[in-house]
Amino acid sequence: MTAVPTSPRALRRARTRQSLARSWAAYRSQRAGMVGLVLLSAIVVLAVAAPLLVDQSQLSVTQATGGRMEPPSAEFPLGTDEVGRSILALTLWGSRLSLIIGLTATLAAILVGTAVGVTAGHVGGWYGWVALRVSDWFMVLPSLVVAIALLAVLGRSMGTTILVIALVSWSGTTRLVRAQTLTVQARPYLERARALGAGHWHQMTRHVLPNVLPLVLASATLLVPSAILMESSLAWLGLGDPNVVSWGSILNRASDNGAVSAHAWWYLLPPGLAILLVVLAFMMCGRALEAVFNPRLRGEGA
Amino acid sequence: MAEGVLSARGLRVEFGLPGGRVARAVDGVDLDVAPGEIVALAGESGCGKTTLARALLGLERPTGGSVSFGGEPLRFSSRALKAYRRRVQLVLQDPTGALNPRHTVYDAVAEGLRIHGIADDEPGRVAEALSRAGLRPPEQFFLAYPHELSGGQRQRVVIAGALVLEPDLLVADEPVASLDASVRGEILSLLLRFKEDAGLGALVITHDLGLAWSIADRIAIMYLGRVVEQGPVEEVLTAPRHPYTRALVSVLPDSPVAEPIVLAGELPDASRIPGGCRFRPRCPAYASGEAAAVRERCEGEDPVLAGPESLRVACHLVHARMVA
Amino acid sequence: MTLLEFEDLRVTYTGSRGRIPAVRGVDLAVDAGEILGIAGESGCGKSTLAMAVLRLLPRSAEVTGRILLDGEDLLTMGWGRLRAVRWTGASIVFQGAMHSLNAVHRVGRQVAEPILVHGEASPAKAAARAEELLERVGLPPSRARSYPHELSGGQRQRVMIAMALACDPDLIIADEATTALDVMVQAQVLELLTGLVAERGVGMVMISHDLSVLSAVCGTAAVMYAGRIVERGPAHEVFAQARHPYSAALGAAFPVIGDPASRGRPGGLAGDPPDPARLPEGCSFRPRCAVAVERCGSESPELVAVQGAERSSACFVAQEGGPVVL
């Protein structure tokens, strides 16, 4: 064995390093996960760099330089829309909104879902019962219909879109987290912790949450694509924020303006493929994370 | 009451079952464990011994009777329980499950210190506890994860985690049942050494009478939620009096009881405790007519532990013979 | 008459950690009407030995040597013959009966299944036979209609034994069949098993980590360590006067009540059983041995007779007549 650090902080750091290295090694062995990760990184880099690659002025309807629904050309590699804007520019900028909405809505959903799930599992009793029934209720609601109704009432904006998506997707996380919490609670090491004198806070932060969070992370990666799809669906239905460009809103304009009958495939394909790719990338990462963190899928042991 | 004695008086733990039945898992137990002595609590699975241990640690709320420590009745406020748990520690049966797989050995042992806010010289205390539990040199184990250790080493980690708080008493629930036979002796020797060197008392729960013979000073035999015989190990195991103890001892290899008495049937359900003496339906003395003189009492009266302080038996037949 | 015979049996698993020798040359024989005990701890190869008899080992296991059942080599026989042997020649009772029973079928049906599959009886006859078997192992025939979860651990183990008896095997292998049971239930099951051997003349191999149980039940006992037999002899002698330091330690782990030598002195060994993938050089027990001599570090002792033909030990110290316990 190598030199042994002795201060508690050094120990904790060494341990964290060790376990991160272990998880990374496990992740790296998942080929689909690595492909997803590369794809996802590329998409994120493009989204972040969009303002550098394409000037925002190109999104302006009044300053458009191209003709109406021009097919791809040297000047517009992916053609133009009905007012002459570059589809490439729109798709690049659209990625920003789709990702932001997807990520924030997911973050909000898992924060609420985890909090409710852990407390429902740990506290139990009537609180746990009520929390579970409420989350069940949200789970059986037809999410798209609810989202449409809420957006109609609350008005169309980016904030409300995020809120609505979070509201219809938190309950799945609650279920997952509660189940995992109950599993961890039944482990003898929690009994040991209680016998050592541990209170609720200690049990939650030292045992329950560290065991729950990896699964939450994996499920969050799978929640992002569904949030992006939901956003795209809402925008395609014309319920998106009218002031910003997202992949869904591009598709909405395309269908409103007869891109289908005009056979303007360059108008429909780029945002559609972008949605497909980003969903695929998140799915691949999520499945790989799940395999890393859920020993049952990996096969217990070394 | 002497300092540091853990005692149960008339302790009862009942669980409600579906269908309105009530399981009397612990049904009126008197038991004392003093510092510097090892008491074995023996019985078959389902006799309530684990529930009794949990109740003694305040992990299960008794439905009747009392638990007291050093003469002070155990209170169930979280502050009182926390203070109590510093002095009485638990060692679980399965060390693999008792250690969080994500925590290193260091964290597992230091957990008690962190819970009780003991911050001075944490690494020193952890190292000391590990080496007392026989993991030497302790620093080598600090960063190990439970899955990298053998079963015996894991149990030592669990024991170190209990020792680090410098308790007065250990409650060990089948501490070696899940370990390989050749490794068991070393773990049991640890308990003996703690008793001799530091005056640490222990309540060892076991189904293995041989284990009690190797390490315990006193033994309590439990049947269906009740202690039926209690006394010094030498006397209880070499000259058992209660028919149940006699049967348990008789089926061991090279037993001091000449004829093996294999009881028919199995331990009844704790929700259906027979009336009168709870052991009567399986009692060989009752069935053979040996207990004919006290037959009516066996059928109508639940016997209580009685006899000289050192050797107490809950059996009408034994009581009648003591009087005679 | 010799019923089952192992001749230089070797089993090697090939896994991610390379070749792992689980059984390293075992010679043993069981006669009809006799109980052979095999003692050892987890990882010593005793369960591999049991599985090898019915060729239940995973495909990655490489088996060499011979296993003769009634003179026929089980390792070379065709699948058709092997199936017949699995039904009527030999059967295994495993530990952990809950996992070996199918939770969704009534136990009567599970006991009757081998009889039906074998095609010898009508369903009604098979069901009647199942009830008869359950009665034989001390369960009321009405229990045939119970599901496994409605039974206690001891009752489930009895059902497992009834299943093993269904096709009248000549050989029964009990692999830790009583380990998970309480003392009293264990005594009941052991009584049942020894009764079967005595009254029907079957041969039995009883595998356990508890040398004291084997000494009470078996005629001959063999102690295994790291894939080899380290001591063999009349079971009671192996337990009471071991001629190998490992058997001595294993025996001491189960003290005799009333024996003042074991009072206050729990017996055991320092260290852990060896990792079969990384066996020490020389005698594989040397790292945990208190009486090892220089020779043990370089040479691996063979199992040779000590104190007459009945006892043999694979320990240089014992072979030279030295004490194996300090």
Write structural notes for this entry.
- Chain C: This is ABC transporter ATP-binding protein.
- Chain C: One of its GO terms (molecular function) is ATP binding.
- Chain C: It is found in: Cell membrane.
- The complex is a heterotrimer of chains A (302), B (324) and C (326).
- Chain A is mainly α and 302 residues long.
- In chain A, 75% of the residues lie in helices and 0% in strands.
- Chain A has 11 helices and no strands.
- Mean pLDDT of chain A is 84; it is low at 298-302.
- Chain B has 324 residues and is an alpha/beta fold.
- Chain B has a domain at 238-323.
- In chain B, 35% of the residues lie in helices and 20% in strands.
- Chain B has a 7-stranded mixed β-sheet with strand order 6-7-8-3-9-10-11, with helices on both faces. In chain B, strands 2-1-4-5 form a 4-stranded antiparallel β-sheet.
- Chain C is an alpha/beta fold.
- Chain C has a domain at 2-104 and 147-245: Rossmann fold (3-Layer(aba) Sandwich).
- In chain C, helix 4 packs across helix 5, helix 5 crosses helix 6 (153-165) and helix 6 packs parallel to helix 7.
- The B-C interface holds B 44-45, 150-153, 180-189, 192, 207-211, 213-215, 233-234, 237-238, 247-249, 251-256, 260, 262-264, 266-267 and C 41-42, 152-155, 182-188, 191, 209-213, 215-216, 239, 246, 249-250, 252-259, 262-270, 272-273, 288.
The share of residues in extended strands of chain B comes to: 15-25%
The overall pLDDT of chain C, averaged over residues, is 88
Rg calculated over all Cα atoms of chain C: 20 Å
Strand tally of chain B is: 11
Helical content class of chain C: 25-40%
Indicate the CATH topology of the domain at 2-104 and 147-245 in chain C.
Rossmann fold
State the strand order across the main sheet of chain B.
6-7-8-3-9-10-11
- Number of DSSP-assigned strands of chain C: 12
Concise description?
Chain A has helices spanning 8-28, 31-53, 87-123, 125-140, 143-154, 158-185, 188-195, 200-236, 247-256, 265-293, 295-298. Chain A has 302 residues and is mostly helical.
Please supply descriptive tags for the structure shown above.
heterotrimer, B: 324 residues, alpha/beta, seven-stranded mixed beta sheet, four-stranded antiparallel beta sheet, 13 helices, 11 strands, C: 326 residues, Rossmann fold, eight-stranded mixed beta sheet, 11 helices, globular
